[in-house]
Specification:
The protein is of the alpha+beta class and 466 residues long. The protein has 2 domains: 2-279, no CATH class; 315-465, Mog1/PsbP, alpha/beta/alpha sandwich (Protein Transport Mog1p, Chain A). It has helices at 2-16, 45-59, 69-83, 118-123, 127-142, 145-157, 159-163, 173-179, 195-212, 217-229, 235-240, 247-258, 269-279, 375-387, 449-462, and strands at residues 22-23, 36-37, 95-99, 106-109, 113-117, 315-319, 323-328, 331-335, 339-344, 348-350, 356-358, 361-367, 394-403, 406-416, 423-432, 437-445, 464-465. The chain has a 7-stranded antiparallel beta sheet, with helices on both faces. It has a 3-stranded mixed beta sheet with strand order 3-5-4. It has a 3-stranded antiparallel beta sheet with strand order 6-7-17. Helix 5 crosses helix 10.
Length: 466
Amino acid sequence: MLLSRIRSCKKFLAGVLVTGVTLLPAVSHAAEAPRFKPGFNLFSPAQDVQVGKENVAEIEKQLPLVKDPEIERYVSNLGHHLVEFAPGNTDYPWTFKVVDSQDINAFALPGGFIYVNRGVLEAADSEAEVAGVIAHETGHVIMRHGTHQASQAMLAQMPLAILGGVFGQSGSITAQLAQAGVGLGLGSLMLKNSRSAESQADEVGTYILYTGGYNPHAMAQFFEIIHQKYPQRTLQFFSDHPNPENRIKAVDAQIPTLGAEKNWQPDSADFRSMKKRVMALPPPPKAGAQPGIQPASQPAAKAPSAPPPAPSSGLVQFRGDKFTISHPDNWEVQQGKESVTLAPKGGIFQDANGGGAQAYGASISSFVPDKNAKIEDATAALIKSWQQSNPSMRVVSQNRIKVRGRKGLSTVLENDSPLAGQKETDQLVTVPGRDSVVAVVLVAPKSEFNSYQPTFQKMINSLDVR
């Protein structure tokens, strides 16, 4: 029995060497569908569904959903039409929901749970573009990218348990994932894709669109257009969905292998009606404010009566997906949808609109800049987006720095503080990583910034960007 388990584990180890999904060569004629083969996976398709459901329960506590019946019906009907053409369609309980956020984003959970932000619907100019986003996310599900990522993490962290056949024997999979450091929710490893996974999802999405009667060119073109036209509204999408090289060329090269050009589906009356309803929706719920960008027109409602305690000299390490940083051990950690916030108790409080206002501490996030953009250009674009809602924000100084051998920028900004009648100083440190830029914002009231500077410098010195 042990020998058979060892042999089985060797097969798993061999599978780990395949970092993504194996796409077998395209067939020579259009009548037969190409075979898309998912990569190494410790999970069964039924366990994909279980993992997906457990993620849904966690994510829907964090995300507001659009509750307009006509918009919900449109996206659900389009999604169910498309999955009829998904290759190797497992009997998943496909669901399609709309997130009430104007960020241009979409994501898929294992087992067929797909979420599309209203920002996608607002930005799309045709039904084929919406279909392209859904088809792409369907590709992630069919190729089982989420549990493939989790499987690799579990094998790295728990090889003996897997060798002994412990995995998946009983109980919630969530607990076993947690042991391997794979959590649920919006920050889950299962929602982070590699460039190879993006290419594979494009390949499956192209096939779905072609067989479903939609122009496959629309998918790749839409991703390219929104990346250029809405750089700040797409930060999270291209963080979790890194843009593969030559995306449009790859899709254009695949289409002839599927067959001749078709008379593609035109825009429907349903699409035009849906688009009109989306554009008429009230503003989405206000997300928590980021540090250093609280507009002066939104003063704090519940500002602290006294400054927070001074930063401790003892440091602890926080490890994120793209970076590692140390912070005072008396600071609290809050992980949001797009960033992590580190702050002393009382450093974050409620503003007049019910959002979070940060007056002390740090916030760290990552974003994917425009292709071939220099760090100076990426930083300037980020600051410009903040200044659109913060007219009093101004750049005080900017210097090139090195963070553990990586060339970055340190930009000092001045802005109105959420503390009534005060100014704040924000130090923005931007450092390029392997496929994104990590942005660290260090914030304190202008009158107290110098006292926080030694702590902030220790944090910058500890920053390790991947």
